Structure prediction request, 73 residues.
Amino acid sequence: VNAIGAVYRLVTNFGAPDASLVTIGPGVSGQPGSPYYRNLLDAWGRNEFFTLLYPRPAVEGGARHRLVLTPGT
Prediction:
């Protein structure tokens, strides 16, 4: 399904969730100035997808950065 204006595209493989695909335009960060703010824009425009990681070991193995948020006291 391709909807006009859709920036999040997900192809879910319910038989093999680890084979699901996703793309997010313009990128994975909502913060201007982040290297990930527009990192997926060109791929999104070409209708290219990447594998969506589901199980925790796959997510931790594929992570490049970790952000830990701690509530203030």
Remarks:
- The chain has a mean pLDDT of 84.
- The longest strand covers residues 8-11.
